[in-house]
Amino acid sequence: MRVENSFVPVRDVGERTERKLWERGVTTWDEFDGTVPGPAPADRVESFIATAYERLDDGDAAFFGEALPGGCEWRLYENFRAETCFLDIETTGLDQHRDDVTVVSCHRDGGTETFVRGRDLTRERLARHLEDASLLVTFNGKRFDVPFLEEAFGLEFSMPHVDLMYPCKRLDLTGGLDEIERELGIGRDRRDISGRDAVRL
Question: How far apart are CA 56 and CA 201, in angstroms?
Fold first, then answer.
């Protein structure tokens, strides 16, 4: 799935209408033939497509993040893969106002950087690492990671955010990340290390 397969950013085009377009063979913007099986007028779709191509050429992920319905941000990944930041944090507890961030790991374009409290975990380093990220990917980050980092370091996250917990729920994959990984057969190098170990850092 690429963003060019998406018609739901157009007002009055929902997932049902989009699926009807796909079933008719209109699976990309280039294939739109001027007819819509729904309430949205064709010129509205054509206007969106023209604007969307310009924004895509400009690498403007924020435009699509605002245009896509909530929960559909994952459609941006293939287009912005190289500028996507996978982020995970560890903390001393669950209260963002009282507890501390001990570790922040960011994975981008094949490389991972880990910042540790007391060593190199600073606002400046995090801001520099995140400043040109077009897309953020987390698990439960909307409720946990991002609020913690905003509180602890005063960071602002303006890029589109894919919180994998929600698409997992739509696929009946529930529980914590470890549990979902096991269900999907995803292995880790060190299953004996958990978030509790990060607190000791």
Answer: 42
